[in-house]
Protein 1
Amino acid sequence: MSREIQEQHVETVATVETAPAVQVEHHVIFPGPLDAVRSLLSIVVIALFVLTFIVQPFRIPSESMEHTLLVGDFLLVNKSVYAPPGVWKWVLPYRNVSYGDVIVFHFPPDPTDHVVKRVIGVPGDRVHLHQGVVYINGQPQHEPYIAAEPSLPDSFRDEFPSALYSDPGAELHWWLQMRHDVTNGDLTVPAGMYFVLGDNRTHSRDSRYWGFVPRPNIVGRPFIIYFSLRRPSTTDVPLVPDDRLGHDRDPIGKAFDFARWDRFFRIVR
């Protein structure tokens, strides 16, 4: 009896081992025109939502924020970081505008333009500059990010607020308004306003020349440089010619020299 069972088991195994392999056919299903249109519309809607409510790209056209931001840098700006917290406050990181923040805002003299500067004074702060050094509430500020570009002395720029209207670049109505906000030589930042300066202090038209930034004008905060074209700046120091051999005619080097590759995906601080 046991021998018959063993024989049957051997026959079963042999049958399984010699059975022909089953070939599985793979069919590629291509989406139809309607599915393709739906996917495209979904991408467009998501992109519009992101660009409208979350981030927005900008390009730096001037040297006023050197060397934090250079001419030719392309930025992504977080538009939601300063938004009033709502139902999304547990998902998106909202916060108040703070000292030292780099912000993008609608230019007060012409709201159609966007400008980028650094926040130096928040509501209630007392601000003044002495020999180019910023004092907040009587305390000198350590600002490692500023560019020390050489320039001639300027009493209005470096000794702010100035008692004399001595700079043709300053707007007259702002200088007259500023008189009401100065106390004991300090400019007091009113409620709902912000005092901003460029990091390149000697080549920046900022709150010293046209006034405060209202809170509703603030668009957002730049958080990353995603691209950077190599563009000349008026503050560039020309190189002294020498007799060293160069490789300016190298076509490969010229092909890759159009961009500042080391600035790609740099965090803005």
Protein 2
Amino acid sequence: MSEVPQHGVLPTLQSMLRATVVAVFVLTFLLQPYRIPSASMEKTLLVGDFLLVNKQALAPAGHWGWLLPYRRIQRGDVAVFYQPVTDTLLVKRVIAVGGDTLALHAGQVILNGTPRSEGYAVYAPAGRSRFRDDFPNMQERDPDTDAAWWVEMRSLVHSGALQVPGGDAFMMGDNRNNSQDSRYWGFVPESRIVGSPLLVYFSVRGDEEGSFWHRLRRLGRWRRVLSVVR
């Protein structure tokens, strides 16, 4: 005898509750939405990209390490994290990890004494900045540099290179001349990393007015939808 389908308020509420529980679990432990607010990661990520952040990767394992596939951060990872000074949620690329030495010469990253090839880096036209392009520069302080970080750097620079403490990461935007990053406010503790962007689930330009549906039709960057972040 076939089961009679249930109707009414109670079954509907039960279904909604199950869906809510699943959604809360996914957003708490697996995925988190994030929108790109600035051009600091162009051309990898564009202003108006909507991301799904994979919270299984990069974030501290905690009590769930036995169940979810967490891993330690690696050079070249794109990471979402809480900025250590303002507590703002940002996305940048991991350039150096604990134990590394880092320097920039004319914008070129020198990692552990070796120039690094970075196909993702973009150098938009900009006036020369000794602090930004020849980092670490202890003679010239950029006005946007956090004062506490400027003082801390002095104890971490040896032979012209910055030493990254264990458990920390040095983050930089791919748009090197248009990025407020670790050069200006310091290291990111691994404990403040939320996860890694998984994919772009939607992307829209923000340069035109009109109704939501008008902008959706005219401004959606459809080729970026479901593109994997690398």
Protein 3
Amino acid sequence: MLDFDDVTVRFPGGAGVEHLTFRVAPGEIVALIGLNGAGKTTLMRLALGMLRPREGTVRVFDRPLTTLPSASWAAVGALIEVPLAYPELTVRENLHIACLLHGADPRRLVLDSLEAWRLQGVADRRFRRLSLGNRQRTGLAAALQHDPDLIVLDEPSNSLDPASVIMLRDQLTRRAEHGAAILVSSHHLDEVARIADRVLLMNAGRLIGELDSTGTDLEHAFFERIRQDDELRAATEGVPL
């Protein structure tokens, strides 16, 4: 569903990501974790064609992004950084438009989505008047209601209360069981460990391996791996700690 082959992109000032290689298969949930500035959002923008790599190839549905038909994006669901919505339209209207943009029938899906994300009480409220949690739930509903084959979510649990986090967890596990490929970034290690088949570690623009999510102290294991990588880069590349 999603394939990175030695992907590199650099920005002015030296920031960027380099030599990213990984795959997300159908029915698999892959979590991406790293400190702020590690490059997680850049990776996800590359996955969605919002950025183009300087080197390497990104494939979606086994097609390079450069040759992917525009109609194929209807089978992708994404939320990057903040929910994409029209602030002056209601929750219901935003979900309706999201359905149309993905080639789906809004007559049934919008009602199902409002119920699934418990948004009935704010369905006719303008998006700009929502709380942060309800904005996030609206964004997630819009990203997932058309039953996409590939799901890319950047920090989807931001602003969610515990009940909404459980809803998100249930939605993702159910969709993976039905064959969707899911890439999700998060700072909540314990939460992603509950659902992820693999947890990828990212540091300083590079993927540095996987985190064993069966351990009892994931945060300690995570920070120890980051410390080790920083020390290795300092020793081999002269990068200051």
